[in-house]
DNA sequence: ACCTGAACACCGTTCAAGT
DNA sequence: ACCTGAACACCGTTCAAGT
């Protein structure tokens, strides 16, 4: 019984039932073991979840060669998209990455990779650090809201649109007018919209910086 | 025993001990009542938490006159800052706002207010809707990561900096070089940096839109 | 030396019994 | 009609007892 298998199983179960519903008994059963045995490999549920978080970051896997042939704009966008795609594969697990600054081995590797990239494109150390934080926060923050515990499934989107339309137009003229636009934009497009805003803003910040 | 007093007490307890540690027994005790009695006012803990979320949105309170005399850039930034300040007053409660799209009365009022503002400054309905979503997601996403359950208290920032410095510079040249910048920027400044990127990006999006 | 069944002190939720 | 003590089926965690 190695730690890797425990973490893989834990992530699989979280993908199926969510963090709240994941039980140490459930995990122990899936591993044909008992809850007490699990405590021999980590100190409690919180530590287990931190290991799962780094396990997810290890899945991101940015292809290094590809990234280096791109402009900084394209590279930043590609890194953010790749990260976002990984988070979308594990919607129930996203809150784990917001719980703390990831300092596991895979988190370190990803941070090093992106900051190196920014520095190689002429970003100052200060601007690179703030850019990394801003982009990272944006991706995780977006994913947690669009794909977290209260996931807006397609039928909920329709429900929400109908709810907005059912409001009194006299009291809520703007909301009812924008009801379709507020609920019809595909999540990925919404993500890309904000990401492009950030990159466009960075373009200006970079000019001021140098 | 009215619902308002229950919600106020629940929020006060969440501010003190967090969502996870809030117990219905604890809440019942604080109200000199029993857990079973609480169920006469809402159906379970989740519904209680949704009511607390809208209670927080009610606290935001954007002064209408002030906002209307500003440029759209200043108004968007001011609204985001005001929202952010409210979330900072209730760090433990922020995850509640990420759990679902807020459709309580106070959430509706805030959305209506901001979309109206964008429309009055010439934004198209489509751009206004996406801007609202992008800004809202940014503020909540940032707050949840900087002030959520794994709050980076000042001493943790120092610890994190020392940790980055302790890494092997050969393996992590960029991270060790940026260690100070990654950990020394005040949270509010970091928030403002990303917000300004978004607003600068919006400036361009608005030009393309019209 | 390593593992684990069984227990501990909790939790959210329910309902029969009280007023 | 309204309220609630006490119970239910859980949970994360611990440790004495087994192999």
TrEMBL record, chains A, B:
Instruction: Report the Gene3D superfamilies cross-referenced here.
Output: Homeodomain-like, Tetracycline Repressor, domain 2
Which superkingdom, per the lineage? Bacteria
DNA-binding region per Swiss-Prot/TrEMBL record: 23-42
One GO MF term: transcription cis-regulatory region binding
The cross-references to Pfam families, in alphabetical order and at most eight, read: TetR_C_1, TetR_N
Q: Which GO terms describe its biological process?
A: negative regulation of DNA-templated transcription; response to antibiotic
UniProt keywords (A-Z) are:
DNA-binding, Repressor, Transcription, Transcription regulation
Q: Which PANTHER family did the record assign?
A: HTH-TYPE TRANSCRIPTIONAL REGULATOR RUTR, TRANSCRIPTIONAL REGULATORY PROTEIN
Q: Which protein is depicted?
A: TetR/AcrR family transcriptional regulator
Q: Which organism is it from?
A: Streptomyces sporangiiformans
């Amino acid at each position: 019984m190695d730690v890797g298998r425990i973490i893989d199983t834990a992530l699989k179960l979280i993908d199926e039932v969510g963090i709240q519903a994941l039980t140490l008994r459930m995990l122990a059963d899936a591993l044909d073991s008992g809850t007490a045995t699990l405590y021999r490999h980590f100190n409690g549920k919180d530590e287990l979840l931190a290991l799962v978080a780094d396990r997810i970051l290890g899945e991101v896997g940015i292809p290094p060669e590809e990234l280096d042939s791109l402009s900084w704009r394209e590279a930043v966008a590609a890194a953010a998209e790749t990260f976002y795609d990984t988070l979308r594969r594990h919607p129930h697990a996203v809150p784990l990455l917001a719980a703390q600054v990831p300092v596991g081995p895979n988190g370190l590797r990803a941070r090093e990779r992106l900051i190196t990239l920014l520095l190689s494109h002429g970003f100052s150390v200060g601007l690179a650090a703030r850019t990394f934080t801003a982009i990272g926060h944006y991706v995780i923050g977006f994913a947690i809201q669009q794909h977290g515990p209260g996931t807006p499934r397609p039928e909920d989107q329709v429900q929400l649109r109908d709810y907005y339309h059912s409001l009194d137009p006299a009291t809520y003229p703007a909301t009812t007018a924008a009801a379709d636009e507020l609920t019809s934009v595909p999540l990925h497009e919404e993500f890309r919209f904000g990401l492009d805003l950030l990159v466009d803003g960075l373009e200006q910040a970079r000019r001021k910086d140098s």
